[in-house]
Amino acid sequence: MEEPPPFLGTWKRIYVSVAVYLVCIIALFWVFGRAFRP
Amino acid sequence: MTLLDWVVMAATLGFIILYGLWRSRGTATTSDYLLAGKTMPWYAMALSIMATQASAITFISTTGQAYVDGMRFVQFYFGLPLAMILICMTAVPKFHNAGVYTAYEYLEQRFDAKTRLLVSIIFLIQRGLAVGVALSAPAIVLTVIFGWPAELTTALMGGVVVLYTVFGGIKAITWTDVQQMLIMVFGLVIALFIAVQLLPSEVSFVDAIRIAGAAGRVNPVTTTFDWNDRYNIWSGVIGGMFLALAYFGCDQSQVQRYLTGRSITQSRLSLLFNAVAKIPMQFFILFVGAMVFSFYVFEKPPVLFHPNEAPRFSGLQEQSDGLHARRQAAARQMLAGTEGAREEFQRANSEMDALRASTGVNDSNYIFLSFVRKFMPSGVVGLLIAVILAAAMTTGSGEINSLATVTVIDIYKRHFRSSAPDKHYLRVSQLASAFWGIYAVITAQYSRNLGSLIEAVNMVGSLFYGGLLGIFVLAFYFPRVGANAAFAGVIAGEAAIFSARIFTEISFLWYNVIGCLVVIGTAMALTRRDATPQS
How far is CA B114 from CA B110, B120, B282, B487, in A? Predict the structure, then answer.
């Protein structure tokens, strides 16, 4: 039996959250780069 | 360096090392020495994993890379969170449940002894070369700051690392990494704050970003696809993911960190912390480099920051000064909103870049240190040098420890002496640490002229990681593949990577993808052939 994570209930939810975070941070960087592009 | 710098540096380094050694007291068994008795909490493992990567190379080379090439290097880490998820799902529970000391021990359980031996040797070669690069970085620091011969500084640094590693074991290494990581973040914040403070009073923080952006230094995402381009979003997400999978899933220097965890949950949390924190941290380090660039738009830079190479090109300094004056004037006009000033700024900047490039010298590793030495206030210089030295020591000691672990567990204990008292293996582990430390010092002597050190480390890793990753993917996901097919797959994968390196211009980030796919393809083909009934 797999030990549950200390937050978000299941490991699957944590993995999905990390993937969404990655998409958000790339989008933020893209916006940042566009705002100060040459 | 002032007396205050020396005091700050000595106190910081002394505290980090003594704290680590104090936390490692009671190390009496091989398990304590190599796996910290599996007692580490997730936050210590998480910071230790980050600190191992955030080495001295990260500090001095990445900032210089942002100065020269902009922030696009951050894309290299875009695949890391995806890799962490996959490793948490597969490698962490597999390794924990197998109860192994090393990742390669698991390969014998899954395949056979020869596969474990082959992969162990590949790791020893690859990590043995990289540890030399890790040690050569602080030698550069000391050479620039004190003018000492690089050979002597490498030997001195290596000597300290060897002593520390031999007596500390992984528990000391992990706890010193925690301190080092916290101090490194503190040092970076101070460096950024002072770099912005040093700008002319009429130039704001946002103005500094606009200047760096106009010069193409604020480019964290590049969407254009090019096989030969090292850093774009595609090579970052795909190539970076494969490299991170190999690094965190198959490289003992990382696997050993999360094997020290109390449980699967603790190990997973440490990796997921890295998945979240690594990209912002790299962005921040690159951003410091971009701000140093903006600073030098208003402060006359040398043609080259390399103190030993600069005199050879002193004839170019006058031309550089003229271009700097043009660039500075255009920057001021650009900030004032003058029409056409932006284009003039970019022209002058391109000409300065071309002038630097015409020397043929890659001095990116010297830019940040030169800035620190000349412009940072007393005390801060000592702190930043201490951070760089501590980073190098912890990275070096961690790598040496993992090399010693593989040498003892996968080679010595497996093939030479399998049933000796635990005290014997503890002593052999310490001797192996000493051996690899000396080896690292020797290879460091040859790694100072490899260009950007951070790229050199990643390039060396990419030559071997594809093969390593391929065999672990086979072990985890392809239950029908047997030992002989996996062994042949690794040989074919490494041959493919070296062919790509020698005969093509493909960026090294793709080597991991190529190597991994060739390993899997070869092993699958051989498995299918063997399974086909002979007529």
Answer: 12, 10, 39, 8
Quote the Cα angle for B253-B256-B258, to 5°.
120
Say if residues B56 and B388 touch (Cβ distance below 8 Å). yes
One-letter amino acid for residue B93 of the chain: P
Pairwise CA distance, residues B247 & B177, whole Å: 18
- Would you call B244 an interface residue with chain A, using a CB distance cutoff of 8 Å? no
Residue-wise pLDDT for B120-174, tens only, equals 998 998 888 778 877 777 676 667 666 777 777 777 777 777 877 888 788 888 8
Beta carbons of B84 and A37 less than 8 Å apart:
no
Cβ count near B41 (within 10 Å) = 14
The 3-class SS string of B373-395 reads HHHCCCCHHHHHHHHHHHHHHHH
The separation between CA B212 and the C-alpha centre of its own chain, rounded to angstroms, equals: 25
Put simply, whether the predicted model's pTM sits higher than 0.90 gets the answer no
Q: Which tokens in the block code for residue B453?
A: 């050190």
Nearest-CB residue to A36 (from B81, B89, B218): B218
| Tokens standing for residue B120 | 């162990």
Q: Are residues B265 and A6, on separate chains, in Cβ contact within 8 Å?
A: yes
Chain B contact set for A15 (CB, 8 A)? 85, 88-89
Chains A and B form CB pairs within 8 A to the count of 68
Q: Phi first, then psi: what are they for B330, rounded to 5°?
A: -65, -35
Name, in order, each residue with C-beta under 8 angstroms of B440's C-beta and a sequence gap of 6 or more: B128, B131, B132, B134, B135, B158, B161, B396, B399, B400
C-alpha distances in Å from residue B234, one per residue of A21, B79, B85, B435, B439 = 18, 9, 19, 40, 37
What's the whole-number average pLDDT of chain B?
86
Beta-carbon contacts of B31 under 8 Å, excluding residues fewer than 6 positions away, are B37, B38
**Closest Cα partner for B439 from B127, B184, B58?**
B127
Please report residues of A whose CB lies closer than 8 A to that of B206: none
Q: Across-strand partners of B261? A: B40
Higher pLDDT, B473 or A38: B473
d(CA B138, CA B153): 8
Amino acid identity of residue B238, one-letter, is: I
The upper half-sphere exposure of residue B305, i.e. CA atoms within 13 Å in the direction of its Cβ, equals 28
Amino acid found at B304: L
CB B104 within 8 A of CB B411: no
Spatial CB neighbours of B362, under 8 Å, sequence gap ≥ 6: B451, B452
CB atoms inside a 10 Å sphere around CB B492: 20
